[in-house]
Amino acid sequence: MNTQGQVRIETSQNIGIIHFQTEKLNVLSHALRHDLYQAIQQLLLNNEIRSIILYGGEKAFSAGADIHEFSQGIHLEFPSLHDLFDLISNASKPIVAAISGVAFGGGLELALACHHRIVHEKSQLALPEVHLGLLPGAAGTQLLPRYIGVERALNTILSGKPLKLDTLNETALIDVLTEESVLSAALAFATQSVGTVYHIKNINIESDEALLQHLENQRAQLKKHTNTVVQNAIIDAIEASIEQNFQAGFLKEQQLFKMLTESAESKSLRHAFFAEREIKNIPDLAQNIQAQPVQKVAVIGAGTMGSGIAICFLNAGFSVTLIENNQAALERGLGLIGQYFDGQISKGRLTEEKATNIQKNLSTTLDYAALSQVDLAVEAVFEDWEVKTSVLQKMDEYLPESAILASNTSTLDLNELAKVTKRPEAVVGLHFFSPAQVMPLLEIVRTELTSQQTLVTALDIGKRLRKVAVVAGVCDGFIGNRMLNEYLRIAGLLIDAGASPYQIDQALEQWGMAMGPFRMCDMAGNDIGYLIRKQQLKMNPNKKFSGIADLLVEQQRLGQKTKKGWYDYSQGNRRGDQDAEVIQLIEDYRQAQGIEAKTFSNEEIVERCIYALTNEGFRLLEEGIALRSSDIDVVYLAGYGFPRWRGGPMFYAEQQGLDVMKNRIQQFAEDLYSDASFWQIPTLLAKKVA
Ligand code: NAI
Q: What compartments host this protein (predicted)?
């Protein structure tokens, strides 16, 4: 295997320069490691050469290890990063890393193995393994403390953030920090500094009380959080760099790294990482279709969503025309947008000048004729069939022939909405989540008639907005909300059967959900769920819902906005306090229904709620609404506070074993108090288990 000429040697006087540049930012795949190893060996054997420079080009020294290799153990095949490390650090000639662009993870460790580093001032040096549930496993935890001190190294590895280069000039990490070409600087350096080779790994870090205390304090901090296996392992590895020789510390790092690569958390985080990269691959899209140019955008409706969507486009550099049907609503929307930018200024995220400049790209009007000037219009008007269809027809009437017609509808049938226009192929759903300027998720809803050109353009828009854009087909609730509705329904039925909303929230929050289902309903407004239930009952009168949520709404307990919902917010506590009135309401309800309350363990609550998500997820896959199960995971990670270290609902169920899920579903279906019609085994699940 080789990188097909992407590694080449150039010699200049007595210096050997190894140029390496692959399409994938010099990710240290087996092929690249192999070619680098050979090139270094060749130069080490060449008596003419007195020093060696590793140069990965301007864009990247290396973006790190090839994570794909971890699951099959290819990362350990000769030459592994460790073999490269040994070759470099034991070399008899000085090896200099010339770093420009990114040096991440294994890429930075490769540079740490070198005897010297010449660094461009704009480059980014980081050990971001923690985000994948790992620690740097090619001596990073042993070398970085030796270069920049234990505390700094620990912070860097725990945070995964790039090092602040201008603070490192005094350390052994950086020999030269330059704004010029790193290759020229490395050549000048190598010419002057030919001589003995010393390596930092031979220096031991002395122990001292303050240092050990610092590590203990960090461990104590972690006790306040759940799921800190990785962070604790990082502290253990760093501790192993103190007071003992490199080899002993390195051995410890290897044990911890192996433990982490095999952990469920790291597998989940790696799954999430790949799942997020997979979403843009749409299997049936023709390769040659280009996104249409979109620069001018109209947002119709300046309510909660419309103003948030306008902010998203403004922040991404589009010019935006906000259209309303009444002046008061337009001004309210403008007020919301203004408030947002003021907030950004006061939080120091934007300068006043920048905020003003961005807002210069915003115009407002009550006249739909303004649509004739834009490339894309997104409607975010009332969720009402008559209102939406009339707005879509106006969009059709005024928009230029090539424009895209997008709708932010969350519940209406987009296949039917598209058909009220004369160009259904140009209609697509852009389903933002509230608050649109904050939530990363965007569902791109493709109707039966959406053209490939329109879809490609929508994907491009999603990318430019820096959203996590997942393609979904048309159905009630698309991917995210359709699953959520079942999750909430099953959670509601658990209350009927005997659990309290507080136990349910607590069980799911302890398990890792950012917010329990009832706290979430209180935040969104219980009236919204009420309307959805009524709507669903119209379509399916036999659907089984808990009646308690309706009682709350009838008593005006709408959630945070009325200061009372499932929780009591009257004391100003944003998370809300448990409320005896709600408990009483539930007990009265059970009595009236003749229900004898059953006790549930937290585990069972979690199982029922999470399998409710997964069960519906399988149906979405069967119907082709979601393209892949990993897309469903991405929707839940980006939009619903699902714990990333559990990978997403579909991945989680797979890790537990799909046979386990199938058996549990069978058991749920037999309970008197649960919904047997929902707990039917999806064909796809049965097939996978078989
Ligand atoms: P909203 O009630 O806050 O805003 C709707 C706005 O549309 C109002 O300002 C209204 O004056 C304006 N409007 C109504 N008819 C109009 C017309 N003919 N021309 C121009 N403007 C008109 O509603 P919200 O919450 O912003 O929802 C808007 C859309 O976004 C709905 O389709 C909703 O389903 C969807 N959505 C809402 C989410 C949420 O969490 N609120 C999340 C995702 C989607």
A: Peroxisome
